[in-house]
Amino acid sequence: MIPENVKEFKTEGEGRFYKFLEAVAKPANSYIVWYTPDIGGKEPDFILYSDFVGLIIFEVKDWAVDQILEADPHQFVLKVGNKETPRKNPMQQAAIIRAI
Questions:
Q1: pTM of the full predicted structure?
Q2: Mean pLDDT by 10-residue block, N- to C-terminus, for the chain (100 residues)?
Q3: Which pick of 4, 42, 47, 85 has the fewest CB atoms within 10 Å?
């Protein structure tokens, strides 16, 4: 895991996902995981490298299924409290990183 022993995460979900990856990316010498690497000014949540599958970009969202009101290829509309909030589709975020 790079960096090792992260003490503070941007979101609770990122912390849980980091612990998940630590537990399942075994044997550890077969995987490299980066947390919030800077790639050409973009910062995906996680990138995992494995000889078996190559590179995988993970964009972690702390959304519950019942918060999602609408979704399309460009955005999600979430119910946060009493407000409807548009958010960029995570696939769009990953596509931007993939293009770099």
A1: 0.80
A2: 89 94 88 91 90 90 94 95 93 65
A3: 4
